[in-house]
């Protein structure tokens, strides 16, 4: 038997740090995006219009055995019919969170998860949909969730999420990894590195503590903005809430030495940046930036090369390039991680209507792939997914 508790305010959330990370350390779902540091700072920045609904499961001695990191959001079906969603903390608000999940003590997943799901489904008395996105396809939770909702007759939908997350599994050494790259990439990588090192004083600076790195956050924002401008993409850092979230998260990660912020400098000028997380034996590539004046020198790709080379030398077991199937990620990668979303109805009219309309929407998208030209299809898909 588990004692269940709902955390519904920031103050109680703030006191969970040590317990939360200790449980995560003993969970099969363990990753940087489920740490208290990421989850708490996300909630602090983006909680507007949402209601906190974290569920804790404790055993008879009070030890924390499970966490359902959820919140309730108010939405509308086709902009007309209001409904409530239970969602993972970290979902939405232009913030990329990956590999979200329930956090359960390893070896006790089924019992803990069923207890959490029972209270989650009770929460569906006020929320019409349990919307679980960005879960790993091979999540330990998935089969237990499916077993529970099938047994209790809930209407649901499982959808593969795109884009996938390319990954790099380091080889025995850097040269062996480079030999496994496409021929043209090997040639370009070696050539561009040689040109840089012949023409400039090349330095790579790494920071694991933003609090002691004067101006590093500001330098990163500048390079990130340059890169987004070059690609005609939105600069997320113009939003104060987004900027504060990233700065506060960097500071929290710095306390655990999980930050891995890298800069490439040419003749003492910072020209490229890579915002990463080093969590245990994995390296997560989160965001990048580059000075447009040095774009022809492939400075972003060269910085990735320097980082991946160092990963081979420092015992990193995986470099996760995270969401996105951009050409450069796919060329560096030798693996691919897939994600799913599981959407469960409460059994209410609004919940069942939402699931029915969603199935219709995905059916239309599948049909479009067979009968409409690619350009027009992509335009319509964007409208349907928005």
Q: Major β-sheet, in short?
A: 11 strands, mixed
What integer is the average pLDDT?
Answer: 90
Radius of gyration: 22 Å
Strand order within the widest beta sheet: 2-5-6-8-15-9-14-13-12-11-10
β-strand number = 15
Structural class: alpha+beta
Look up the CATH topology of the largest domain: Aminopeptidase
Structurally, the number of domains stands at 2
In the CATH hierarchy, what is the architecture of the largest domain at level 2? 3-Layer(aba) Sandwich
Task: Kindly provide the name of the CATH class of the largest domain.
Answer: Alpha Beta
Identify the CATH homologous superfamily of the largest domain: Gcn5-related N-acetyltransferase (GNAT)
Please count the helical segments: 13
Q: Can you describe this structure?
A:
This protein has 386 residues and is an alpha+beta fold. It folds into two domains: 3-160 and 339-385, 3-Layer(aba) Sandwich (Aminopeptidase), CATH 3.40.630.30; 170-316, Gcn5-related N-acetyltransferase (GNAT) (Aminopeptidase), CATH 3.40.630. It is 42% helix and 27% strand. The strands form two sheets. The protein has an eleven-stranded mixed sheet, sandwiched between helices. A four-stranded antiparallel sheet has the order 1-3-4-7, sandwiched between helices. A hairpin with a 2-residue loop joins strand 12 and strand 13 (282-290). The radius of gyration is 22 Å and the shape is globular. It starts with a strand and ends with a helix. The mean pLDDT is 90.
Q: What's the helix and strand layout?
A:
Elements: E1 3-7, H1 10-14, H2 17-25, H3 36-46, E2 50-52, E3 54-58, E4 64-68, E5 70-77, E6 81-88, E7 103-104, H4 109-123, E8 129-136, H5 140-151, E9 156-168, H6 174-179, H7 183-199, E10 202-207, H8 216-230, H9 240-255, E11 259-266, E12 269-279, E13 282-290, H10 299-313, E14 318-320, H11 327-332, E15 335-345, H12 349-371, H13 374-385
Parallel strand pairs: 6-8, 13-14
Antiparallel strand pairs: 1-3, 2-5, 3-4, 4-7, 5-6, 8-15, 9-14, 9-15, 10-11, 11-12, 12-13
Helix pairs in contact: 3-9, 4-5, 12-13
């Amino acid at each position: 038997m588990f004692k269940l508790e709902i955390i519904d305010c920031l103050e109680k959330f703030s006191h969970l740090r040590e317990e939360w990370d200790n449980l995560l350390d003993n969970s099969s779902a363990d990753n940087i995006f489920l740490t208290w540091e990421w989850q708490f700072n996300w909630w602090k920045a983006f909680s507007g219009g949402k209601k906190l609904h974290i569920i804790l499961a404790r055993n008879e001695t009070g030890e924390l055995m499970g966490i359902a990191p959820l919140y309730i959001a108010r939405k509308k079906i086709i902009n007309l019919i209001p409904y409530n969603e239970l969602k993972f903390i970290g979902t939405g608000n232009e913030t990329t969170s990956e590999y979200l999940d329930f956090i359960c003590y390893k070896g006790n997943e089924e019992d803990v998860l069923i207890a959490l799901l029972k209270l989650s489904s009770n929460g569906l008395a006020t929320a019409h949909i349990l919307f679980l996105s960005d879960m790993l396809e091979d999540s330990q939770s998935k089969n237990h969730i499916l077993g529970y909702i099938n047994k209790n007759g809930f209407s649901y939908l499982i959808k593969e999420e795109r884009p996938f997350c390319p990954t790099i599994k380091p080889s025995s050494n850097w040269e062996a990894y480079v030999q496994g790259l496409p021929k043209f990439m090997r040639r370009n990588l070696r050539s561009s590195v040689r040109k840089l090192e012949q023409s400039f004083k090349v330095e790579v600076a790494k920071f694991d503590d933003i609090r002691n790195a004067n101006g590093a956050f500001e330098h990163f924002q500048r390079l990130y903005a340059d890169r987004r401008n070059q690609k005609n993409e939105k600069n997320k850092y113009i939003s104060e809430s987004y900027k504060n979230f990233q700065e506060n998260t960097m500071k929290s990660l710095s306390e655990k030495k999980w930050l891995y912020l890298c800069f490439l400098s040419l003749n003492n000028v910072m020209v490229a940046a890579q915002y990463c997380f080093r969590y245990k034996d994995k390296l997560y590539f989160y965001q990048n930036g580059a000075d447009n004046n040095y774009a022809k020198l492939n400075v972003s790709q060269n910085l990735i090369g320097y980082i991946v080379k160092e990963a081979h030398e420092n015992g990193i077991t995986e470099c996760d390039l995270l969401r996105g199937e951009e050409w450069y990620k796919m060329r560096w990668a030798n693996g691919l991680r897939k994600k799913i979303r599981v959407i469960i109805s409460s059994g209410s009219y609004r919940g069942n209507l939402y699931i029915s309309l969603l199935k219709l929407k995905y059916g239309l998208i599948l049909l479009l792939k067979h009968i409409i030209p690619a350009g027009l299809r992509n335009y319509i898909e964007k409208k349907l997914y928005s």
